[in-house]
Amino acid sequence: xxxxxxxxxxxxxxxxxxxxxxxxxxxxxxxxxxxxxxxxxxxxxxxxxxxxxxxxxxxxxxxxxxxxxxxxxxxxxxxxxxxxxxxxxxxxxxxxxxxxxxxxxxxxxxxxxxxxxxxxxxx
Length: 123
Fold this sequence. Notes:
Number of helices: 3
Largest sheet: 2 strands, antiparallel
Structural class: mainly alpha
Oligomer: single chain
Number of strands: 2
Low-confidence stretches: none
């Protein structure tokens, strides 16, 4: 139906409005997938950076683990422990001498603990 408004056809205006709507819809349909692809690509790049950072951190942690294992090996060498004990004033026990160790479950029985300490101090 064509109507006249001040001597012009209203039908032409509607057609221009529809054309604009189609153009806008088409533009949105073209731009929206591009935006989705750009967002996915950006997320992928971020994951790539995170992977790189985690690999670098893994290398550093592996190096630290190697260093700590070497330190553990050095610190637990029997000859080093022996020397440390001598430096602290500890001496080997005399031949034929032995110590008896008694473990107390708790310190509730204080007189028994004091008696054990007294006997341990006796030469």
